[in-house]
Design brief:
Blueprint (H helix, E strand, L loop, with lengths): L1 H19 L4 E2 L9 E2 L8 E3 H11 L6 H14 L10 E3 L4 H6 L21 H8 L6 H22 L7 E2 L21 E2 L1 H20 L3 H21 L1 E2 L4 E2 L1 E3 L17 E2 L8 H5 L4 H12 L6 E2 L2 E2 L24 E2 H13 L3 H22 L5 E2 L22 H9 L2
Antiparallel strand pairs: 1-2, 3-4, 5-6, 6-9, 7-8, 9-10, 11-12, 13-14
Helix pairs in contact: 1-12, 2-3, 2-5, 3-5, 5-7, 6-7, 7-8, 11-12, 11-13, 12-13
Length: 413
């Protein structure tokens, strides 16, 4: 009975995606000279980094030309790379005075050391892999690869700490706007679990692309970088006491007049959805994954909700279900992208029963929203399943459409 309901909700959501998502597919427009995907709702005509990647990921098997638009997204970002390798995390097709006042510049100018915004998140090589589902010539791929090398080098040159971990510049462009381990903190002070997992997967994508380009020595270098980063995440970000991966405070240093060096890590102990990202990346040891799932994910006083996965544990003091923007609220509400990433991580480690329950809850939430309101929303209240936030938001909500196929694929193994 449960599977029948899951399948029915999947069909409802998938039908809605097929009927509505084409409005997020755009031809070249304004300053964007290539095809692109936008998030819809109040974000029309805007190209965002992780939004376009996860939207394309969710639509790859829905529309035959998704790969063409993923390629266009990468090409648009490449068009606006600065000489230092900085790539803006958002580009508006038709910039306005209002957009220029709140978004980082997209004018090919280098990012200064005191700039309070991040570069495009390390997902563009992974988006290029989606683009490669269409026929991309070696000549074209080599050109894109050169761009990807430069933008990853910018991350390495500006945001890589001595311990090998990558650090967010600030909350701006981090994606999870008010993540308590990032929001309100000084520049370059938080090494993000999700950031380093994104970069691990980005290195793996670069390895694959380099091999496709015949650059096997460079592919081996990216493979080595991925393994080194994997080791750093596991060595520094895992907290054995709590059984979670935490962001790290990177401001600790030896006092000027003291002799003892600071040799320990300072975890920022906020129980957020990002704690599970090493499972999505496939870099968490199995015994650690077991602890995270059993002690935290399934805990109804922490992450588990009947509607999806909370973005912040319910027993955290700053837990909130308030609907707001600038910053968007990631301190409790259910977002489809974070629930999907946790779902994918759980599936990676063979927890198919738990993954099925997550899929059942999320698809039921979205199917009900479609049937009741005729639209989807940006994020949802984890206590009630309700939302009035950004009606008509589409974007990475398309990821809900791939959950059942991915679950069935895993269950056949």
């Amino acid at each position: 009975m449960f599977y029948e309901k899951l399948a029915a909700n999947h069909e409802t959501v998938l039908r809605f995606i097929r009927e509505n998502w084409r409005t997020s597919f755009h031809e070249a427009d304004g300053v964007l000279k290539h095809k692109f995907l936008d998030p819809a709702a109040g974000y029309r005509g805007q190209l965002w980094d992780w939004d376009s990647y996860f939207c394309a990921l969710g639509l790859t098997d829905v529309f035959d030309d998704t790969a063409d638009y993923a390629l266009g997204c990468v090409q648009n970002f490449a068009d606006y790379m600065a000489p230092d390798g900085f790539v803006p995390y958002v580009i508006c097709a038709h910039p306005t005075e209002s957009s220029r006042s709140v978004l980082p510049p997209a004018d090919r100018s280098p990012r200064g050391a005191d700039a309070d915004y991040n570069a495009a998140k390390p997902l563009l090589a992974q988006m290029t892999e989606i683009a490669c589902k269409r026929e991309v010539s070696v000549t074209e791929l080599v050109k894109i690869y050169a761009f990807l090398k430069a933008y990853i080098a910018h991350w390495e040159n500006t945001q890589k700490a001595e311990n090998g971990l990558f650090v967010w510049r600030s909350y701006r462009g981090s994606g999870t706007d008010n993540h308590p381990a990032i929001y309100g903190r000084p520049l370059n002070s938080s090494a993000g679990v999700e950031l380093n997992c994104f970069m691990f997967k980005e290195y793996k994508a670069m390895e694959n692309i380099a091999n496709r380009c015949g650059l096997h020595a460079e592919a081996a270098l990216y493979k080595e970088k991925a393994e080194t980063l994997k080791d750093a995440v596991n060595a520094h970000m895992w907290d054995e006491i709590d059984g979670l991966y935490y962001h790290l405070d990177m401001l600790n240093q030896k006092p000027v007049r003291a002799k003892q060096e600071v040799t320990w890590d300072v975890p920022l102990k906020f129980k957020c959805w990002t704690c599970f990202m090493p499972m999505w990346a496939g870099i968490a040891p199995k015994e650690r994954a077991e602890r995270m799932v059993r002690e935290h994910l399934l805990n109804e006083n922490e992450f588990w909700s009947d509607f999806g996965i909370r973005t912040l544990a319910k027993n955290e003091p700053m837990y909130s279900t308030t609907e707001m923007s600038n910053p968007s609220n990631w301190q409790g509400p259910i977002w489809i992208v974070s629930t999907y990433l946790v779902f994918k991580g759980v599936l990676n480690y063979g927890y198919t029963a738990e993954a099925q329950r997550i899929a059942e809850n999320l698809l039921d939430l979205l199917a009900n929203d479609i049937q009741k309101n005729g639209v989807l929303h940006e994020y949802y209240n984890p206590e009630t399943g309700d939302s009035t936030m950004s009606p008509g938001f589409m974007n990475w909500n398309a990821l809900a459409g791939v959950m059942l196929p991915e679950l069935e694929k895993e269950m056949k193994k």
